[in-house]
Amino acid sequence: MLHYGIVPTIERWELVVDGLVQRPLRLSWKDFLALEQVEDRSDFHCVTGWSGFDLSWRGVRLAHLTERAGLLPEAVAVMCHGQDGYETNLPLSMALQSDVLLVHTAEGQPLTDEHGGPVRVITPRLYAWKGAKWLCRLELLARDRPGFWERNGYSNTADPWRDDRYSS
Ligand SMILES: Nc1nc2c(c(=O)[nH]1)N[C@H]1C(S)=C(S)[C@@H](COP(=O)(O)O)O[C@H]1N2
Ligand SMILES: [Mo]
In b/e form, how buried is each residue of 71-81, taking b as 16+ CB within 10 angstroms? Predict the structure, then answer.
């Protein structure tokens, strides 16, 4: 686990979807909960070796948001921004998988502040640093750009099944 800075509140929560989209979105908490909600069970992998297996999640597919915003053909990656200034990048080939969710509920409980509430991203096929906590912005990019850990020695692809932790 790693994070710093202040933990945001639901009252001030807002999600922006911008960059290479046809219709930039700015969603309130109410708007977000009015979107199609999905439930999923998936694993959670930490780079330090810890893995939480088979957690139940509830939230919105990242792909659902990019559909609503309308991807421009030039978009190839998405930068996920946390309110603490954290950022982590995902190529669209990963980001648009149906198990990549913006979750607000884990194991039937609202996501705790510590774990990124009100809303974080989960990327079950990748290490947990690819899942931005306190999500506030999805920025669609024309070129993949490294996020915080990707600039600081972690691998850009982050596949736990290949033990792909560090950039070479
Ligand atoms: N906004 C934000 N998201 C973040 C981080 C962070 O520092 N800030 N740390 C990442 C890292 S390195 C990990 S391992 C996971 C930890 O998630 P957890 O605190 O729920 O275990 O969150 C990721 N998402
Ligand atoms: Mo981490």
Answer: beeebebbbbb
